[in-house]
Amino acid sequence: MNEDQQISKNLKTVLAEIDKAWSLSRNSLTNRMQVPSTPLSPPALVAVSKRQSSTRVDACLRAGQRVFGENRVQEAKERWSSKKREYKDLKLHLIGKLQTNKVHDAVEFFDVIEVVDRFKLAERLSIEMTKQNKNLPCFVQVNTGEEPQKSGIFPGEVDEFIEFCRKECKLNVTGLMCIPPFHEETAMHFSLLREIALRHGLPNLSMGMSRDYREAITFGSTSVRIGTAVFGER
Ligand SMILES: *Cc1c(COP(=O)(O)O)cnc(C)c1O
Prior knowledge:
By secondary structure, the chain is α/β, with parallel strands linked by helices. The protein has one domain: TIM Barrel (Alpha-Beta Barrel), CATH 3.20.20.10. It is built from 10 helices and 8 strands. An 8-stranded parallel sheet has the order 7-6-5-4-3-2-1-8. Helix 4 links the parallel strand 2 and strand 3. Helix 1 crosses helix 3 and helix 6 (119-131) packs parallel to helix 7. The longest helix has 25 residues, at 3-27. The chain binds pyridoxal-5'-phosphate. Pyridoxal-5'-phosphate (PLP) is lined by residues 48, 50, 71, 95-96, 179, 209-210, 225-229.
């Protein structure tokens, strides 16, 4: 199998698995009771193209995928600037830590900012959205495992932070994002994120990566960020 065929096959498999996990959670009565927010359509696939070769990314585009996630602003601009002109329906999500000095470029370049995780950043995003006359959908990143090395607002601060983003900064907060600790059961983290979203009436949950997206979907994920399972190892 050549690279094109492999990636097209991976993509089909992942989309089928997403559908399957979503139907299962919709149809199970226990889950219907536990998950009042079970989404009405299957979760969106954000194909995480960071550090993947351009031949793999091109193969994925040829296979029809249009939503991609990148974790660095500069790398994303290099890869996607020309493709954005070619593919008008591309949607790019920023999923990696955003430094305040990159906010201008991030707002200019991305369609969704998934990593709003601190007060200073929310303020800078707000100023930049106004300047560029944009109101990009934003996700608040929650550090559900309170890991010091990881980005994300801690659960204890999240209520105040969401209010701040919405009321003071007028950011278009549409959901929450998390990356559970690597060595822990993910269930607790996914259900915590869902609880916070329900409490704030936020419709979107960005949770689930290659190794845990099926489980994330049973907890009501509305978009999964998948790199390895689509493109292969980085
Ligand atoms: C790299 C990355 C992913 C994709 O991880 P895979 O294990 O390759 O699916 C998802 N989310 C974030 C925030 C990432 O940095």
